[in-house]
Amino acid sequence: MRSSSTPLRTRLAALCAGLAATAALIAAGGSSAHAADTPLRDLAAAKGKVIGTAVTGSKLTGTYGDLAGSQFGSLTPGNAMKWESVEPSRGTFNWTEADQIVAFAQAHGQQVRGHTLVWHNQNPGWLTNGSWTSAQLGTLLQDHISTEVGRYKGKIAAWDVVNEPFNEDGTYRTDLWYNGLGADYIADALTWARAADPAAKLYINDYNVEGVNAKSTALYTLVKSLKERGVPIDGVGLQAHLILGQVPSTLQQNIQRFADLGVDVAITELDVRMALPADSAELAQQAADYKAVTAACVAVTRCVNLTVWGFADSDSWVDSTFPGYGAATPYDANYAPKPAYYAIAEALGGTTTTPPTGACSATYSVVSQWNTGFTGQVRIACSGAALSSWKATWTYGAGQQVTQAWNAACTQSGTAVTCTNASYNGTVPDGGSVTFGFNGTWSGGNPVPSVTLG
Ligand code: 9MR
């Protein structure tokens, strides 16, 4: 796979594009702390790994886009490349979101993991409701793979060619593909994908195959036999949708046994869900879990990619699928890094000064702007920490002047602005946030300052 190192020019462009907010962090105890100086993607690259995230194309602007572009070296479209997304009606294709994500990745020097070509889920109704002979179904699948893989030829580092082919007991899932084509649909799909893009690494991806168990052993046996038969298989994806405190003890051993078969391994969809509301103890356990998974990947040379399934708690599939559970990702819903973020950084060899218990962050954004005026906002959010009072300070770099504030008392002296809490909003609970706003004047430019919380 291509290295994730990025030309400075590209990284600068990524930083400048849509930079709408800055965040400052303070520790639970009030000592100064900050996010890892080195982005996760650079820490991972130094270990010979690529760190990725699943993304939604429409969200790739503002803070979400900044973080997706700067912290991760690989993107996986969460839904955009699935069959129901790209061919909702037979012969009518919609590549808009998939194209957008691929273009974003190229602009940010990132790999793309293509997801996914053959799956039991998220297929279009015309396909699942149709009545097909085996030959027709095979042709449909071959055409689908040739079309999609061919479209992105040379732009996809790895394809999850086959997704979730096994039941928990290691038997094949009796889905549309197995029922219509038999177990060889897997070998055929891999062969067709190889023909359409010889450079892309081809994976089989599944969940609950992180530890050594019946399901992962079935996957192991399949990969071994595909290799023996000369079928193109380059890697296995361990999805890793984990429950708090339940990282399998055999994770590293399992990664190693696949590596020893001569295939790459990727952690493809990592998240760690917990009972809501999240408290400090849960967030600390989650950090330990993320650290353990990252360390297991770091320990095995052929574990090449570690991808989180959404990087922020506001962008996770977990909450709607498991009511009462959530907070599964490394950033909270306000894009403040959680203890899990720092745990990943540490497992990748980074050093941070953040307390393991969590932090509060202040995020400045320009809400609206006109000729010479603007409305700004600062959001103070805590995760794994709490505040009973707060003070946010920043220095304007382009002559801006605060004229009026609400939900805070703000003063400006020269270029220095100091805002303190109102009588009613000094408390920011663990997992909560407070927002204050202000109007100001500007001329020439209105760059976003860095906010210090203290
Ligand atoms: O994140 C995806 C979510 O938006 C979809 O609603 C869901 C539908 O099945 O699929 C999610 O992604 C899945 C991935 O494609 C395969 N592994 C399990 C993921 C979580 O369900």
Automatic annotation (TrEMBL):
SUPFAM superfamilies: (Trans)glycosidases, Carbohydrate-binding domain. Keywords: Carbohydrate metabolism, Glycosidase, Hydrolase, Polysaccharide degradation, Signal, Xylan degradation. The keyword Hydrolase applies. Transmembrane segments: none annotated. The keyword Signal applies. It is an enzyme of class 3 (hydrolase). One of its GO terms (biological process) is xylan catabolic process. Residues 1-35 form the signal peptide. Its EC number is 3.2.1.8. The active site is at E269. GO terms for molecular function: endo-1,4-beta-xylanase activity; polysaccharide binding. Coiled coil: none annotated. It catalyses: Endohydrolysis of (1->4)-beta-D-xylosidic linkages in xylans. Residues 37-347 form the GH10 domain. Residues 353-454 form the CBM2 domain. Belongs to the glycosyl hydrolase 10 (cellulase F) family. This is Beta-xylanase. It comes from Streptomyces galbus.
